[in-house]
Amino acid sequence: MDETGGVIRLIHGRQKTLNPSFEQDLLAMLPRLRRFAVGLCGNPADGDDLCQMSIERALANRDKWQDGTRLDSWMYRIMRNLWIDEGRATTRRRETFVAEEAGLSVGGEGAQESAVELSMVDRAMQQLPPDQREAVLLVMVEGYAYKEAAEIVGCPVGTLNSRLVRGRDALLEMLGEKA
What we know:
Blueprint: H1 2-13, H2 20-41, H3 44-60, H4 71-90, H5 112-127, H6 130-141, H7 146-153, H8 157-174
């Protein structure tokens, strides 16, 4: 969570150029932004980086945000766009040297069973196409209404609903559960 502290220091360092409401709302939103970023990226380190880049971009473009509009939707759109840009830039650089299943046998006694189950869900989420993963994260994890999630993603509500249903069904199939 030291990344969160760094982001908070960054926000406080720029407070002279922000209005207090913007700063407070941004700080209050930080846990949700981080959760969404980690969900998109698939791991906490990349999620923290994406969250920080999103905050930096929001601060740099503060003048483009209009008072009275939804700051959370604006931030999610910034984060989504950055994630797409970063994904395109790193697609060819990523290689897996060990099979994903190799990690399931690592660890001792204790609460590993829960960690393994959560890890399996995370891997299943990462196997979803990006548009389906976004829909699942926004609606099922973040709790956005379909209309709000569709606005964030920039598609019609019907398209978002279709992506959500396909993503949920694919997750259930990958995890071996019945709908």
